[in-house]
Amino acid sequence: MSNELDLDIYNDVKEHAEDLLNSYGKRNREFEDYEKMFLLDWQNKPDLDGIKITISPDPRNSILGVVRLMTMTDPVFSVPDNIGEKFDTADRIEQAAIRWWQESGKIAGIPIHRDAVLSGALYGEVHIAVSSTQDMLDYLKSVSGSNKSMKAVIRRTERLVERTPFLFEVWNPKSGYPEFDSLGLSAYYRKVKVNRSKLIGQYGAKAVDIAEGMSATDTKELSIWYDTINYAVWVEDTPLIAMEHELNNIPISVVVTDGSMIYDKPEQQRQPFLYGVYKSGMWERSNLALTVMYTTMFNMGINPTFIHVAPKENPTKEVYYDASKMGGVINLEAGEQFQVMNTSGLLNESLVSLLNLSERKVTESTMYRQSLGEPLAGNFAFSSLALLSQNGQLPLVPLKKQVGLAIENAMYYAFDMYREHGKKSKYTELDPREIPDRLVINVNLEISLPQDKLQMANVAQLLRNNGIASQSWIMENVLNIEQPDQMTNEILADKAFELMALEYIKRRIQADAMQDQQQIMQQQQMMPGQQMMPGQSPMPSPEEQQMMPGQQMMPGQQMMPEEMMPEGGIGSEGGLGIEGGIGPEGGMGVEGPGFNPALGGQSAMAAEQVPDFNMLMQNGKMKFP
Questions:
Q1: Rounded to an integer, what distance in angstroms lies between the CA atom of residue 134 and that of residue 170?
Q2: Are 191 and 221 in contact (CB under 8 A)?
Q3: Nearest to residue 81, comparing CAs of 499, 484, 489?
Q4: Residue 515, in any domain of the structure
Q5: Residue 88 lies in a domain
Q6: Which residues partner with 194 through β-bridges?
Q7: Which among 52, 168, 440, 464 is most buried, taking Cβ atoms within 10 Å?
Q8: Which residues have CB under 8 Å from 421's CB, separation 6+?
Q9: Is position 379 within any domain?
Q10: Residue 149: which residues within 8 A CB-CB, separation 6 or more?
Q11: What is the mean pLDDT of the chain?
């Protein structure tokens, strides 16, 4: 992107942005109410002395439970294998997507999908922005000029480019105002307050003059506009950028997670997780009931209240009772009474029933607590608990699919920009030319619990044994393995290593046994008391004896029994054949057929055909010769 400023574009988009902002007024007010419920900020609480304000945490617990369940695992990115001519193109695209997403989370200090799930559960809407780090660097360099303070900003951005070509950010939907047409997102306006460091870090020297005089805690309103043609940025009434962006898509993914677009009003289109609790007022009723109960208990039930009945002869008598001392005796006259007042009926049963009713309605409007690990009263089988836990996750199915769709769109926009403007570097092995024009990338946010893993493993085994689905499909769709092809190669590598290790051990044992046998034969060939004459060569080995035709055996010399001889003879091509010796210099040097322990004899594979383990693994994949 260039840094040109077209004032005509700025004036047009600013007017459009203000109209769009006004149409989302009621939606934002409801978003603020959802935030207050989540942050336990009760606005209508009674303002009286002695009141014990007690707020129900049920809405917050429900939202946090959703976030925890859906962020137990990272998003699984999958690309069909038939998108390109090369088989491993899909794998490289998946690996690039995983790396870009994880690096964005590391830079932000929190997993990106966690904020996406929280946004979808709390607001019913997810906004994910995609930013090119190279464009950020080019822009900062173009506007830095001679400003010395920009050098540190540029160095930070250069390190950012080395880590990832794109940044993914989850924006608060309360500050985002999307506009849709029949083809999808047609315009997007964002208005948010930013501090001085963020303003300069994003827009460089152009923002230095605007940020002059701002303290570290001061903020100014930053406006960002995108439509299908133009891109504009301004701070309050000062334009920074207004230009044509030349992108194929608006680089912001906007998805409504709960609700429907059949309604006309934005506040009706979004019906988030707490919509029923908010509209019904059950949270307010729960807060009132809890406040009344705890106020009553603290004021009357915590401190004991005593009843004193004075004697008839002395109706004005007062009892002195010192509660600071343990034990003690209270002297009473005839007819006088002193006892603790019974407060067992202090709380009205109807009030308790109303509180239970409101809590039950909150649970019905969100999700059942068994999904979050709450135990059930009584003895239940593990299968029953697992079934209840899975059924309780049904309200999360739309949220899971829609948040996954938001991530899919954001990742698609990133690859589209990378194909058009990206460059291959040592930090990204994927070549932009390898990305197909019609890329299909799927994202799965799986809710994974220990009982679910056991069940999925059983399902995978059943599908595999019955031949219903391929191993690659089972790995990706049932077991949620991100790289099924890579996992298959790793399994083959493990099996190959085990077979080669077993083959090595068997051959080593056989070679050691033959060496021991040769030593025994040499000892038997030596006569008792026989000494070797000077210059006399050592006794030839059995192999050498076989190679010397016509040589007669010495008296007392014995041949190795035929049943102990390996097939083809010792040292022949068809036999065990230890070439180079068994010592550390020559190594095993095994030639000829290997030993197959499963067959109990020689295998059909020649030793020279047994591949080396390091040669099997090439580029992370199993390659057989």
A1: 20
A2: yes
A3: 484
A4: no
A5: yes
A6: 220
A7: 168
A8: 132, 134, 135
A9: no
A10: 200, 208
A11: 78
User: What are the DSSP E strand ranges found in 515-591?
Assistant: none
Write down the pLDDT at residue 608: 45
DSSP state of 474: H
Question: Residue 95 domain-assigned?
Answer: yes
Report pLDDT for 17. 94
Of the listed ranges 83-92, 209-218, 345-354, 491-500, the least confidently predicted one is 83-92
pLDDT the model gives residue 116: 95
Predicted confidence (pLDDT) at residue 114 exceeds the cutoff of 60 = yes
Q: Distance (Å, rounded) from C-alpha 624 to C-alpha 549? A: 43
Among the listed residues 16, 169, 139, 80, the one whose alpha carbon sits nearest the alpha carbon of residue 440: 80
Q: How confident is the model at residue 510, as a pLDDT?
A: 87
The residue segments making up the domain with residue 61 are 7-274+396-448
Q: Is the CB of residue 204 less than 8 Å from the CB of residue 153?
A: yes
Residue 378 tokens read as 């009584």
Name residue, tokens 């929280």. 118
Mean pLDDT is lowest, of 239-248, 529-538, 583-592, for 583-592
Count of domains forming the chain: 1
Q: Which long-range contacts (CB under 8 A, 24 or more apart) does 491-498 make?
A: 492/622, 493/613, 493/616, 493/617, 493/622, 496/611, 496/613, 496/616, 496/622, 497/613
Helical (H) or strand (E) element with 190: strand 184-195
Q: What is the pLDDT of residue 490?
A: 80
What tokens were used for 426? 């040592």
399 exposed, middle or buried (CB, 10 Å; 0-12, 13-18, 19+)? buried
- Cα–Cα distance measured from residue 42 to residue 35, given in angstroms and rounded to the nearest whole number: 11
